[in-house]
Amino acid sequence: MDAIRIIGENIKRLMENQNVSLRELSKVIGVSHPTLKRYVEGRQPIDSEKLLRIANHFDKNFEYFFEEEKEADTKAFGFLFRADKATEKIDDTDIERMKDSLRHYLDVMEDPDFHYMPEKYILRMPKKRRLDKEIKKKIEELAYAQRRVLNIEHVIPENYFEVFSQAGIHVVARKFANPDFFGASSYSEEHGSFILINDNESIPEERKIYSLVHEYAHLLFHRDQYRKDHKAALYESGRSDMSEKVADKFAGFFLMPRHLVKAYVDDKQRIDKVAMKHHFKVSMQALYVMLREYGMITREQSDAFWKQVNKKATEKIEPHPLPKMAIEEKNPKLIGKIKDDFLKEEIGTNKVAELLGMNLVDTRKMLKSWRESEGRYLHL
Predict the structure, then answer these.
(1) What structural domains does the chain harbor?
(2) What is the C-alpha separation between 325 and 379, in angstroms, rounded?
């Protein structure tokens, strides 16, 4: 690849990682939007003065823009992506941004003395393309077993992200522009297990929590399906693949365990679906699926609900959504390290924005709150 294209690719990568638009950056360096687009696409050389302005804006060395990105063999991951019709909705740019997110995470986090790899389960799958009662019973048992492992057997935790992080899973929640990508999981013998969640504001919090557990299920059941070749790991359709069905069923049993659902209904003596979905932190669709699974609503009630959903085409609109969680709550381990490094002035604003996929305005607001809570002045 020639130098002009390498520079363009590196500018593009920084813009994507920090959610900076062409128009925003064109104002920073004092060129028109079409001119910057030609720089990024490698169709026009950029002079050193303008490139230096970009380097200063992103807090990068000038030499950074001339280095061609290479795959780091020591940081190779096997990816398994969760998305309906993934090959249609996730492109190579999305995948590279996912990989970059995990590389950035490893760059800032100190290597622990040990890595956590969840247990590996192997299910005897039926020949028919559906989960029979036997398989569902086993998935339910394993979901409860994992709640015991995570020490939440008898409680609904306030923060599932913190639960998985404390268990040793590397959880990374950051914003990706593509709302059709919900989450991904990865693992390696060298670095441990990872769950990556899209914190895009258009995705309901219920979906993010569900995706977190769904990806954990992939780590448990489908470790043989992880591939270094990302295209081999993409599902053609999340709804038709048996692995997705297993992960979905596990997530339902995990988030709404039978004994806690029964205890909740017995205590309230009725089913208030809005209050119930907030208590268990699930979507209305997941709630109906599990209530039907446990025989707490009739088939007619379930069918009426799904008919209404399909009629209004509201599949992606969550009724009575959960309140938004702050990005700090979803990245407890990573935020702790970033905050420590920032307050020691070892990393700057641009690096924090890059790590969390935030724009600079929101990043500065967050860092200002950290500074004020510490009662100290730090340059933003």
Answers:
(1) 3-66 (1.10.260.40), 73-312 (no CATH), 331-374 (no CATH)
(2) 27
